[in-house]
Design brief:
With 326 residues, the protein is α/β, with parallel strands linked by helices. Helix content is 46%, strand content 18%. Helix 4 packs across helix 11. The protein starts with a helix and ends in a 5-residue tail after the last helix.
Length: 326
Amino acid sequence: MQSRQWLLKLCVAGSAALACVAGAQAAEYPTRPITMIVPFPAGGTTDVLGRLVAERLGAELKQTIVVENRGGAGGSIGSAAIANAKPDGYTIGVATVSTHGINPAVYKNLPFDAQKDFTPITALAAVPNIMAIHPKVPAQNMAEFIELAKKEPGKLSYASAGNGSVSHMMGELFKMASETDLLHVPYRGVGPALNDTLAGQVDVLFDNLPSTLPHAQSGKLRALAVAAPERTPTLPDVPTFAEVGLQAVNDPSWFGLVAPAGLPAPVLEALSKATIAALASPELKERLASLGATPVGNTPEEFAAQIKETIERNARIAQEANVKID
């Protein structure tokens, strides 16, 4: 009996010791460089935003953050790498409305579960989306465009960055909300979609604001509406989708920070506090504003709810528009 009690005490003491060691390790976090995986190639909005955040977050944590681009399969390759990493806080990654909100709704087989395989840390920023048309289209505003589209169903075309992309889902949602029929022309990325819209090969482009912004400002494209809570200072004369009566299309794109599932609570707390502090810095706010982005910085619980709601919304769009990718 005494030997059993001694063994039990030993086990309890051992568990407590392990807990103390784990707690001490978390309290010292971070003690070495952190890798931030960006699941898209260099140069795009996700990469630029991720690097801006990494620079300021590294300063907050007093540790180097190395950005690693792992593009491919609509962000799924990089996202899977985040999910499969050791949950110790030394591998984090950028999640987007595409990787964690759309892909789970349209891809039949993903190498990860967007809700179960990650620890949400915080939403980093919201970036407006935009609908722009080539000047050859005889519509000066949204009302005129919808009227034109209804007169000739299927004649006007819209370009997207590819099947299942943010721009594709936005285009389908626009069609539902406006009760119009546009021809979808998918491309392999925003670049070629933008180029063909600028050339007048397609009539309409749905896109994140940063890449289309200079062309809307120069008049090479005519912006009809932006998806954002309020008008963007970079295009003050362009109404939001809510203002033109299309509230359903008015959600901006979001970018967030995640880690593998099972991240220790103290490490999550350290990352969450440091990231929110980084987003509150005037320097990062100004640099994000140059992209048309607004910093967010919500709690891990709020970000988890945001991911869940985005998946559910896009699942409804995908079902109604019959968007499926094997």
